[in-house]
Amino acid sequence: MGAIDVWAQLTTDRMAAAPWMATLLRWTKQTEAPVTPSVATTLKAMDDAGVDISLLSAWYGPSGSLISNEEVSNQIDEAPTRFRGLASADLSNPIEAVREIRNFVDGGKFVGVRIVPWLWDMPPNHRLYYPIYAACVELGVPVCTQIGHTGPLLRSETGRPIPYVEDVLLDFPDLVVVGGHVGFPWIDELISLTIKFPNFYIDTSAYVLHRLPPNFVSFMKGIGSDRVMFGTNWPMLSPAKCLKEISSLKLSKAQEDAFLFGNAHRAFRL
């Protein structure tokens, strides 16, 4: 089986125009290039790197939908064997948010929910998230969040694993939580949560593999071997660029298979 990319999105024009995107585009040297990939260019990028499935995210923030669930649904329909969806919702309207998630998330086409805390400037233990977590438990799907510092020039505090993610894991013991973007600089905190909670996973999105923090790589090869999943943050980074120097990690065959597809297959029930 090929790799599974657990963090990707087909950026819309309105998301690309968001002021906070400027820092990300500068970091990834895309200030002169389009950041609104098509399904066709996304599939080519996946094929070039041997990625079988990408999980496409919807994005909702205080200003409304940046990528709507309906748009993600239509993207999946163009390549239903290659894409799955991660729904999102408007936190400011909890009842409607739950309705939206129940309308889209079926465990087949949409396999989870993603909420990006820094976009809301609210840590994931804020009360407005809790109806969504309850809905995810009922639906049997993971909730995906962001951990670690933020690329955009917005507060990083919302991405700290302890106490924010820990509170969620304590309050919802049946909820699978996936923390994206590695968690730097709080690697020790995410390792401790992995030891404590069997339903906590991490993905490597927003990092090329040869630039992963050394203590994170050691974690991947040890107690984290069944918890870490591959992600890109496409189109900010391409799968080929992320995977180019995977050999530098010196993973065993079993560790590499778990990282590239096995852990994601289990966590998202693909």
Describe the structure.
- This protein has a single domain (3-267), classed as TIM Barrel, CATH 3.20.20.
- The protein has twelve helices and ten strands.
- The protein has helices at 13-16, 21-27, 39-49, 69-78, 94-104, 117-120, 130-139, 161-171, 187-196, 214-220, 239-243, 253-267; strands at 3-8, 51-57, 59-61, 64-67, 83-87, 110-114, 143-146, 177-180, 200-203, 228-229.
- Strand 8 (177-180), helix 9 (187-196) and strand 9 (200-203) form a beta-alpha-beta unit.
- Helix 5 runs parallel beside helix 7.
- The two termini are 12 Å apart.
- The model has no long low-confidence stretch (mean pLDDT 95).
CATH class: Alpha Beta
Strand order of the largest sheet: 1-2-5-6-7-8-9-10
List the helices and strands in order.
EHHHEEEHEHEHHEHEHEHEHH
> What is the CATH superfamily?
Metal-dependent hydrolases
For the CA atoms, what is the radius of gyration?
Answer: 17 Å
Give unreliable regions as ranges: none
How many DSSP-defined strands?
A: 10
The first-to-last residue Cα distance is: 12 Å
Q: Architecture, CATH level 2?
A: Alpha-Beta Barrel
Helix content: 25-40%
Main sheet summary: 8 strands, parallel
Number of helices: 12
Give the averaged pLDDT, no decimals.
95
Annotated CATH topology: TIM Barrel
Tell me the β content: 15-25%
Count of the domains: 1
What is the general shape? globular
